[in-house]
Amino acid sequence: MSTSAPIATVDLPCTACGHHEDEPMWTGIEHEYRGETTDAPFTVVKCTSCGLARLNPRPDVSELGRIYPPTYYAYGLTDSVDAAVKGGPILRFTEKAKITRYQKRLLRIVKQLGDTEGPIRLLDIGCGDGRLLDWYKESSIGDRIEAYGIDISEEAVATAKARGHEAVAGRFETDTKLPNNSFDIILAFHVIEHVDDPTAFMKRGAELLRPGGIFVVATPNIDSIDAKLFKKYWGGNHFPRHWTFYSKKTLAALAQSQGLEQAEIEWEVNPVFWNWTFHSWLAGKFPKSKWPDRLFPPVQIFHASIQSFVLLSFFTVVDTLQRILTRRTASMAMSLRKPSA
Length: 341
Prior knowledge:
The protein is α/β, with parallel strands linked by helices. It is about 35% helix and about 20% strand. β7 (about 145-150), α5 and β8 (about 165-170) form a beta-alpha-beta unit. α9 (about 270-285) crosses α11 (about 305-325). The longest helix has 24 residues, at about 90-110. The protein is globular.
């Protein structure tokens, strides 16, 4: 299908409060997968009632297969890791550092559960090919992890299953296969902004958690300095795949509406957003040129290479400075607890 072909969209009220009075914030276009999805413009609006930002109109759910092309980065993480292993000492060191970072993060989350013994049932939403579940199983507490995953890609789920994980294909917010009140930890790393019904998404998370369990929701922070500065070029837009944009206040309000309590919040360093920001800015200024793709590769940034190492290292420093100076970044991870009683 041509990228210039019309894309089905829906004009919807605010997913949080139901109001339909909005203020336009900025309008932008696809830039990471230029030539593969759609050329249509999309507008981020802010609800005048509750302040939640969202894409409106946004693509209809029938267009998911179009806006998530087969080359979508999350579907090929295993290949990226395998390439790093073969890519020499620098790339192997970088990949090892990434794995260690995820494993340490898991240990911090487990500590939030309190004193626990025995198996830890963990669900990764948007598990892709299961690579993150591999890393958790390879951690120092991996023998206690019962790994589950869910993803909209049947092919990715098949790969996760082949790697030994329990996984189901489908949309998390409409899932009926996973057992209620059974998970100790649910991880949703940059997923909730992609779904059409975030309230149902949060509700499903609350249903699946056991009492005292932890639901970690990581998502872009639209209240960051770089979002306000770059606007339509901000990497967190991820047009047209990010549909809802949260701040600390609006995400906490959503969690509270479903009976979940905020436990902790982590302001994440996310160098990929900065790479996407600069790519979007240059692609917007030079729409017919290919050199922005070469200078700030939007998809290959996830693949092991010396260029990716240099860019991600540089932008890690930039984002760390932003966190020090502003006490927040464009990426937040909020830990939510299901009350024990």
